[in-house]
């Protein structure tokens, strides 16, 4: 009886270890994919439909907040906001790609990352390997199925990457974009 209990306890501890190490293994694979600039490997760890919906919601909300109550209350302002909301689809399409996410996580400008080879191929930092994009990140379990990575936690608006568990696999499903809160308060 004691042996059966001991074996059951060992199995439970092993399963708990596999579960707890899952997001850290996914983060390690994401780090390697970003450093190697391997978009195929990076895309295996991302739920693109969920991420697109997340980006769309954040950008639309930011657009309405920046417009202010005066613009929202008028008929022309409402029409302009509706048209501008359609323009956020293009930004979402740029961000919700492996290259866009790699640039976002690295902290580099998206347009520069995507077009740097075409703009100035002799530029010094085009061919240099990026530094560790997750250096100094803070990791946290929010629930048994939710894990967050906070990049650049020392800044006022850090980039927060949310991962969700699907079985034993962890995938990026949420990235809270670092909108400048101070600029928003002054507008």
From TrEMBL:
Q: What InterPro entries does this protein map onto?
A: DUF2939
Q: What is this protein called?
A: DUF2939 family protein
Look up and give the organism this protein is from. Aerolutibacter ruishenii
Q: Which domain of life is it from?
A: Bacteria
Pfam family of the protein (one): DUF2939
């Amino acid at each position: 009886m004691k042996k059966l209990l001991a074996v059951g306890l060992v199995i439970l501890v092993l399963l708990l270890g596999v579960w707890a190490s899952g997001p850290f293994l996914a983060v390690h694979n994401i780090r390697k994919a970003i450093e190697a600039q391997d978009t195929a490997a990076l895309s295996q760890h991302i739920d693109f439909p969920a991420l697109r919906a997340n980006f769309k919601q954040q950008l639309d909300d930011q657009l309405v907040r920046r417009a202010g109550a005066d613009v929202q209350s008028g008929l022309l302002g409402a029409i302009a906001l509706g048209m501008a909301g359609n323009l956020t689809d293009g930004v979402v399409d740029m961000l919700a790609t492996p290259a866009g996410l790699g640039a976002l996580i690295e902290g580099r400008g998206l347009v520069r990352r995507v077009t740097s080879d075409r703009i100035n191929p002799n530029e010094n930092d085009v061919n240099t390997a990026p530094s560790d994009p997750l250096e100094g990140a803070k990791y946290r379990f929010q629930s048994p199925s939710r894990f967050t990575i906070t990049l650049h936690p020392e800044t006022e608006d850090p980039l927060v990457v949310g991962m969700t568990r699907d079985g034993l696999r962890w995938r990026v499903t949420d990235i809270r974009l670092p909108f400048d809160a101070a600029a928003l308060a002054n507008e």
